Amino acid sequence: MRTALLWLLLIVGMAHGNTFDELLAQAEEGDAQAQAEVGQALLTGNGVEKDESAALEWIERAAAEENARGLFLLATLISVGAHPERPADEAIPLLKRAAELGDGFAQLDYGTGILEGEVPAVTLRQGVRFVRLAAEGGVIEAQRNLGLYYGGGSPHFPVDHIQSMRWFTAAAEQGDAIAQVNLARMLQFGRGEIEPNAARALELYEAAATQGQREAQSSLGMIFLRGEDVPRDILRGAELLEAAAWQGESEAQWAIGQLYAPGGIEAIQDPSAAYFWLYLAQMNSYPEASESLAAVAPLLSEEARATIEATATELHPAMVHGNRPSSG
Question: For the whole model, what pTM was predicted?
């Protein structure tokens, strides 16, 4: 079971706009769904002071009433060792029951567990069925995953570009940046029977880039830099590429390094900046980085290169995780 799902679920606000006090009143009257949501809120301190002990009690009460969300929360807490009084082998049956009762997050977690071989099942078709149920119920991650699976990302799904586009579209329409950039790529280049649609691809890249999605920023930056289906805008392209580069996107690091290098944009040529970005691109194994770096290296002293390399090495770990270092 994947712990990320629990925290994805826990950060959402109160269901139906209810305040914590309203939910607590409903929970005390025996409403199992409210009991689960009270437990969820107490786990994170969402609208109330955090209290893990009380949270467990409310979640247990909801699960005892066969509430799907309560069962899912209980299963996940057991699986990550946050409920030491319950043995780990109780997690899967609880998760399965939550999925059967219709909890979308449970369906995604249980179905994915089957497909990845983490959860025993009679057939892999059970995994497919539960992931589809979660996607049809509007769970964004399930929709995005189906887009990836049908696009060739899983041996358990046939390659079907129409289905891939369908599910990426569903997640993209809910604002999911990863789905937006994947759908944009399909429409930018075309895929199988999917015809290219440059205008729609640009809209999707813009939407994802606005959310800070680094692959979208990089792709959009290259589009503006080259003037592909848009008026060429080198400065806008450079801004987008640098934003992606600071988040560790290797293609953007290489591209912005090329812009700073001799032969790039004359107004911003800077061998030190070029060496910095190309060195980072090389650290991230970008294929053309080493050759580009070798071309810039003779323009700097050995001492200057060593200083830049030390700075890049220090900043690199934060960039790998998509974080712009404060010293950037």
Answer: 0.86
